[in-house]
Specification:
Elements (H helix, E strand, L loop, with lengths): L15 E5 L5 H12 L5 H7 L18 H9 L3 E2 L2 E2 H15 L12 H12 L7 H5 L3 E3 L5 E13 L5 E11 L3 E3 L1 H12 L2 E2 L1 H16 L3 E10 H4 L10 E8 H4 L1 H11 L2
Parallel strand pairs: 1-5, 5-8
Antiparallel strand pairs: 2-3, 4-7, 5-6, 6-9, 9-10
Helix pairs in contact: 4-5, 7-8
The structure holds zinc ion.
Organism: Plectus sambesii
Pathway: Cofactor biosynthesis; 7,8-dihydroneopterin triphosphate biosynthesis; 7,8-dihydroneopterin triphosphate from GTP: step 1/1
Protein name: GTP cyclohydrolase 1
Length: about 270
């Protein structure tokens, strides 16, 4: 069977398959690989693979409260911070911001904005609550496939850690498997986990590549991100069409110019 059977893959050489992420054939793939082979990496394998990459939750642990209601409210809001309720604290901070930009925080349209903004910020940074163990659990498959796998145009939304404004774009991932492949939808989940944090594009690129490398020990991993930064578009140089490209090449993609060129050619439209 062919490893990828989406409609939109290109086949520039017999050994390479390209999958557009938008084509929607992703989720079926992992189960297809699993049933064809019948062997799924055990939990232990997965955990061992990611031991070095395990991501801890950044927020401080919940502090026991003497008041049961406070405790329930804090848990309902996600986590508590030592100073009180996280959501309330953040909303208070946003109220201050709204006042300092010259607005009336009590104006009707802004009354619930601090709380909404706080919730939105928690969503934009929900990657802190995720870890690779959970995301890749049961999605590493033993497969005798040694041809380049490329998933391109994975949508990415992140927050620039220098200005707390968005940067967004597309992520292209390629890897050359040895004995293990990753469920294709999981590549997007890895992108999501790292991008939903305060980031710089360079680090995001490398974190994705290293995570895939440690997960399945492929012969090489290539990650390219093309993104537009609102801190450049809306302020500073105000170059609306400027995009920033970053790449991280590991293994054969770094060592072998031909493999790298093949990948770079295939991700071009
Ligand atoms: Zn910035």
């Amino acid at each position: 069977m062919s490893f990828l059977n989406g409609e939109s893959y290109l086949q520039p050489s017999p050994k390479v398959y390209v999958q557009d992420f938008d084509s929607g054939a992703m989720d079926g793939m992992s189960s297809g690989v699993a049933s064809a082979n019948g062997s799924i990496a055990s939990d232990n394998d997965v955990k061992k693979d990611f031991g070095a990459l395990r991501v801890s939750v950044k927020h401080p642990p919940y502090q026991a409260s003497t008041d049961d209601d406070d405790e329930r409210a804090a848990i309902a809001a996600g986590n508590s911070s030592p100073g009180g309720n996280k959501l309330e604290d953040m909303a208070k901070a946003y109220r201050t911001v709204i006042s300092h930009v010259g607005e009336d925080a009590n104006r009707q349209g802004l009354l619930k904005t601090p709380e909404r903004a706080a919730k939105a910020m928690l969503f934009f940074t929900k990657g802190y609550e995720e870890n690779l163990d959970d995301i890749l659990n049961e999605a590493v498959f033993d497969e005798d496939h040694d041809e380049m796998v490329i998933v391109r145009d994975i949508e990415m939304f992140s927050l620039c850690e220098h200005h707390l404004v968005p940067f967004m774009g597309k992520v292209h991932i390629g890897y050359l498997p040895t004995k293990k492949v990753l469920g294709l939808s999981k590549l997007a989940r890895v992108v999501e986990m790292f991008s939903r944090r305060l980031q710089v594009q360079e680090r995001l690129t490398k974190q994705i590549a290293v995570a895939i490398s440690q997960a399945i020990q492929p012969a090489g991993v290539a990650v390219v991100i093309e993104a537009s930064h609102m801190c450049m578009v809306m302020r500073g140089v105000q170059k609306i069409n400027a995009t920033t490209s970053t790449s991280c090449m590991l293994g054969v993609f770094r060592d072998d110019p031909k493999t790298r060129e093949e990948f770079l050619t295939l991700i071009k439209k």
